[in-house]
Amino acid sequence: MNEFFPEVTKIDYQGSDSKDPLSFKHYNPNEKVLGKTMAEHLRFAVCYWHTFKGLGDDPFGGPSIIRNYNASNDPMQVAKDTMHAAFEFFTKLGVNFWCFHDRDIAPEADNLAETNKKLDEMVALAKKLQDDTGVKLLWGTTNAFSHRRFTAGASTNPSPAIFAYAASQVKKAMEITHELGGQGYVFWGGREGYSTLLNTDMKRELDHMGLFMNLAVDHKKKIGFQGDLFIEPKPKEPTKHQYDFDAGNCVAFLQKYGLTDHFKLNIEANHATLAGHTFQHELEYAVANDMLGSVDANRGDMLLGWDTDQFATNLYDSTLAMYTIIKGGGFTSGGLNFDAKLRRESVDPIDLFHAHIGAMDCFARGLKIAEKMIADGRLEQKLKQRYSGWDSGFGAETEAGKVDFEKLEQYTIENGEPELRSGRQEMLENILNEYIC
Length: 437
Description:
This protein has an eight-stranded parallel β-barrel with strand order 5-6-7-8-10-12-13-14, surrounded by four helices. The protein has a two-stranded parallel ribbon with strand order 1-2. A two-stranded antiparallel sheet has the order 3-4. It is of the alpha/beta class. The longest helix has 27 residues. The chain is built from 16 helices and 14 strands. The chain is 46% helix and 12% strand. The protein has two domains: 365 residues, Divalent-metal-dependent TIM barrel enzymes (TIM Barrel), CATH 3.20.20; 58 residues, no CATH class. β7, α6 and β8 form a beta-alpha-beta unit. It catalyses: alpha-D-xylose = alpha-D-xylulofuranose. Its cofactor is Mg(2+). One of its GO terms (biological process) is D-xylose metabolic process.
């Protein structure tokens, strides 16, 4: 069997003093943090699409990256070589999970039946490689946005025939995710939105998407899939407005269509900033609503207004993310999936390793800093102090719903102008800097 990354053996933890760029400085998978290993906390996954199918193309130019596993003229041979390259990469990098779209791992044929046959052949290979390496599937998903049939959406398409095609594709993708032991299945509304309201019946499209998701829940039960279903917020791109705009919008959608018991959220950092939020905001909202499922770990460029999907190297973001995730109970079926791509000028295969090493170390450092924040408890103490008025007496009675407007008015008349207390924002930011620096 060909070796696709011969210049790399196995990426090992060498500690913060190491100068070897092909080593982990902070990610030690067996190191215990808050009672679990780093590997158990972080549950790193490599995405198939950007890592192995992304070739550096952008809206202004075609592919800039050449990969040796794309050498064959036979699309199925390319698919098989890519799969072998992927599992070689997973094992050399030392991640325990991977993620894919159906169309990432197998080429599309002239009709759905033939496409599914090709997909089955590739799933058999993936299953063998999973067994050989011990790498598991974090989650699968469906690419119902790249083909021209989905120009106007999938579940929200004006055509019932395209709705049916999308359902058929999701059906198959859920089945192969189940076959591969996937721990979850993600719905991302690639083109579930609109570019203009002049040709859009928004209510009907939302109703159709709600119907589609409920049908997916029914099929999950039918096939006995035990993994979680995730919905991934994104505000825009490629449409002007996506129906899965942000975490709050997704929770409202799930509530309206009776889906909150069946779905959790897959939060992506870059999508959060596109929605005008921070990564931590979206995580906190998901945790507050008991809806945090998984994370697409990347970052955007704050000077660019599109989904740049860069590798996560911002230590503040990773620290606050891990602080929120751990306080929220940590991952169960989800994890940190590197939905990130190399820059167009990073054309060498080894750049894939450098990118993932940096991001994994960044989250490992964030995890260790979050451990200190939780153990020390200063931030949590300050937060508790700020809301302490609600913990007893009149505040507790109010929070329990035992008062009405008349009683609230009476309290105000008797007690006069409320005392104003500082939020201590600057001090808290200084404390955060102490932990990080």
